[in-house]
Amino acid sequence: MQVTVKILRYNPEKDEKQHYESYQVEADPTDRVLDLLEKIKGYQDGTLAFRRSCAHGICGSCAMRINGRNRLACKTLVQDLNTTKITVEPLLGLRVIKDLVVDMEIFFEHYRAVKPYFVNDEPPPEKERLQSPEERERFDDTTKCILCGACTTSCPSFWANRNYLGPAAIVAAHRFIFDSRDRAAAERLKILSDHFGVYHCHTIYNCTDACPRGIQVTKAIGEVKKAIMTGSLD
Length: 234
Hints:
alpha+beta; 15% strand
C-alpha cells in the first residue's frame, strides 16, 4: 500500500519556523510508524531527525504525536491508524531541537526533583527487606513507567506552565511513596504539595489515555493527593 507521511519539520540552522513536508512511502499494514520514518530517512531524506533506540516499546525514545495523539512510533502499526495519511509531529510543550527531537531536560529535571530512588537509612537486615505480595501490589502499576514523556506532554496544565512537575514525575514519586520499604514518603509528599505539584492537575485524563504502558496515571495522581490531604498512605 502507498502511504503519505506528513512530518512537521524544523531545522534551526535554516528554518525560521516549523513547516510540514510530505513523503510517499510503500508500506505493509503491519509496518510500524517507526519503520516508515526509517525508510524516509534511509532512502528519501537523510536530514530527517528523530529519536529511537530499542524499537520494542521499552526505552520510550520514539514518543511523538501521530495523527494528533501521543504514541510510541515503534508500537503504532499502520493498520491501527485506519488511514493511508499519517501526520507525525514532535511532542508538545517542549522546545524542538530539530524535526521530531525535543529537549527533554525540563522533563528530567522535574523527574529528579521527586527523589525517584529508594531511600532507607535504617541498618540493613541480615537478609533482604521483606515485602508482602499485597504491599508490592500497592505500587505495581507505577513501576511500569518508561519515561517516554507521552503523559506529561499531553497535559494542558504542563502546556500552560512548564513549572508543573507533570504526570510522569508524580508517577515516579508514587512508585516510592507507597513502597513499604522506603522512608522518604513525607519528603516527596511535601514536594508534591507545592503549587506546581499534584494540585496543578485538573483531572483531564489525557495522561492516562496517552500512556503506552497502560498506567492509570490519573488514578495514581489522585492517590497522592489523598495521601497529602489525609496524611495517610492507607
